[in-house]
Amino acid sequence: MIEYDVSPAEDPFVALVRWLKAARDAGSLTRESMCVATVDGSGAPSARIVLLRGFDRNGLRFYTSYLSRKGRDLAENPAVAAVLHWPELERQVRVEGTASISSDEESDEYFESRPRGHRINAWASEQSEPLESSELLQERFEAYETRFEGEEVPRPHSWGGYTIVPERIEFWQGHPNRLHDRIKFERHSGGWRSQRLQP
Q: Most CB contacts within 10 A, which of 110, 143, 151, 198?
């Protein structure tokens, strides 16, 4: 049984660093996978898996098309929830808060670090829009390959980062007989207030 090593008195970001490191050390295939749930203007929810691409005390970052369904949802309603899940360790972290668009500088820096094919795809794919055929997407990709041949691929203005600013963070550790450990941290007066929850 894995020991629950989160203290109600600690900074939740410090605990998150430790749990992410434990997931990497365990070779978890989902160590950076994060389920992000959004709500559109009518209140309809939608969830999908994205990759956690960094975090600090400002929040958790992911990147996508601003014109995708999640981008459109966040433009209407910035409320967001995210879950990191590591089944090998029987652990999950739940995050609830609001999402804001990252700075152009931050988005540019990350975009330039991506493989060239991924950067070209950001131009070729109008994420979440209908597609007549996979052949058409391939043709668009090849057209942008030709367009940017011999030069750097710039970041499209419709693509960039979001930072999830947490208001609540919960650490969950599975145990036999469903005697799970749960500690919830809530932002309070410039710091964090913690509470142990029943499983």
A: 110
| DSSP assigned state of 129 | S
Active site residue 114: no
Q: Compute the C-alpha angle 154/155/158, nearest 5°.
A: 140
3-state class of 6 per DSSP? Answer: coil
- Whole-Å CA distances, 122 to 20, 84, 174: 28, 25, 38
Average pLDDT, integer, range 57-77 = 95
C-alpha to C-alpha distance for 58 and 198, rounded to whole angstroms: 29
Catalytic residue among 48, 53, 178, 187: 178
SS3 167: strand
Contact 97, 80 (CB under 8 A): yes
pLDDT tens string 92-144 = 999 999 999 999 999 999 999 999 999 999 999 988 888 889 999 999 999 99
Neighbours of 194 (CB within 10 A): 18
Residue pair 11/100 in contact (Cβ under 8 Å)? The answer is no
Alpha-carbon distances of 169 from 6, 111, 131, 164, 183, rounded to whole Å: 12, 28, 37, 11, 8
In angstroms, the first-to-last Cα distance of the chain is: 16
